[in-house]
Automatic annotation (TrEMBL):
Alphabetical list of PROSITE patterns matching this protein: MANNITOL_DHGENASE
Catalytic reaction(s) noted: D-mannitol 1-phosphate + NAD(+) = beta-D-fructose 6-phosphate + NADH + H(+)
Top class in the EC scheme: oxidoreductase
GO cellular component term, pick one: cytosol
PANTHER family: ALTRONATE OXIDOREDUCTASE-RELATED, MANNITOL-1-PHOSPHATE 5-DEHYDROGENASE
Keywords for the protein's UniProt record, in alphabetical order: NAD, Oxidoreductase
Name of this chain's protein: Mannitol-1-phosphate 5-dehydrogenase
Subunit note: Monomer.
Domain Mannitol dehydrogenase N-terminal: 8-198
Entry's EC annotation: 1.1.1.17
Amino acid sequence: MTTNKPVAVHFGAGNIGRGFIGAVLSQADFHVVFADVQEDIINALNKEHGYDIHLMDNESRTERIEDVRGVLSTNLEEIKKVAKEPNISIITTAVGANVLPKIAKPIAQIIKTRMADNRGPINIIACENEQHATTILQEAVEKELNEEEQKYMRDNIGFPVCTVDRIVPPFEGKSVLEVGVEPFYEWTVDVNSLKRTDEDVKIKGMDTTDNLEAYVQRKLFTLNCGHAVTAYLGFLTHKSTILDAIKTPFIHSTVSKALNESGAALVKKYSVFNESDHSKYIEQILRRFANPQLHDEVTRVGREPLRKLKQGDRLLGPIEMCRELDLPRDGLLTGVAAALLFSPEDGDDEEAKELQEKISQKGLKDVILELTGWKDGDEDLDAILKQHEKLKGTSTN
């Protein structure tokens, strides 16, 4: 299929792919080719060539996404045909950081095809909720290429770093393609890591910046941090959704406290932010959590606690920044204590089970020391232990 429009190849036709990145690209007048392993989704895209996204807020409304199609990412011959289309100008992903190595082979096939056809530079943007997603993808793709192909990739393929922000909760519609999303979104790309110039890749709905680290950490230490703390405190107080949790005064005040602590650190570290604007950003985040149309389960938001408790991530990251800048962090430490108590009964979350097994085998203190790298007797360690004991009592009430 040929088109006069610019073509975007997007890996990941799940809710986030269809409801966020794919939708933004389509609305920016791209013909979007979704690549995925889910045959039912791909077949539906090729039958309908469009789908509805439901913008969920106080006045829910529907937008139609059109001029899309699908291809199985495991079918390398089909991927090769897509790669030969003359108007491809961007490749994006929204598959989850853990899945990135699995799409390295089809992306490598696109690179090989472009090299054989003597095609020019293009950018491949990993739009994942993970700080090092671009590195994961780039290294995985490189392993699929020989030395000559690797040189072509270095010269012609950009792997820009980006930050993405949109809440896309589980949604059941009339069609398998329909998806529900919040109206708010941000997609910010590092202009310095684009292979072509900023002007060459101007896309409506995608912003660029020359200080991406600040925006990555703002999102991670505000939206992701607040989401996680809300989920873990919600779990402990037997709330089923983020909405129910954030409506609870104790949880709202604790999350607000944590975000103002991380915010103080962000404003102090990065001159691009100021206190007034960041306070408004925090208020916006809290309003998003309280969106009455979003029924996001605390167990979904809180899942994989070990990943969320990694150094530099949404919980320990802002704490470390506060420690470096000698700023208060009591609310953030409470969030860590709550995360250490996360143990959904359904047993579906392998990381939650692993975390509780570690605590049972090694003891809580040693697990915290292992996660944080702190020394025994650290004041923040003692604060987490005290909050853990206090919250453990809350969870049994």
